Amino acid sequence: MKLFWGLGKILMLGFWLVVLINAVIEAPSPFGVMIDMAGAVLLLTHLLELFLFNGSLRGRRHPW
Which UniProt keywords apply (predicted)? Predict the structure, then answer.
């Protein structure tokens, strides 16, 4: 199970790295827009998650 947890963290880090690189160096036409949209949707999802589930996260020993 730790293997999947670590793999998920590495994939998420890679995704955000691609989004940040795309902000600096624009990707070709259809891919740049898709990367920006995917990054925006995922960021919005994470912010909504924090907003909606902040109370249950506070009660945990390790919220992250």
Answer: Membrane, Transmembrane, Transmembrane helix
- On whether the CB atoms of residues 22 and 32 are closer than 8 A, the answer is yes
Model confidence pLDDT, tens digit, residues 39-57? 999 999 999 988 998 877 7
By C-alpha distance, which of 13, 9, 3 is closest to 64? Answer: 9
How far apart, in Å, do the first and last CA atoms of the chain sit?
Answer: 17
* Nearest residue to 19 (alpha-carbon basis) of 43, 47, 46: 43
Residue 19 to residue 39: CA distance in whole angstroms = 6
* Domain ranges, ordered by start, for the chain: 2-58
Along the 64 residues of the chain, how does pLDDT read in single tens digits? 889 999 999 999 999 999 999 999 988 889 999 999 999 999 999 999 889 988 777 777 765 6
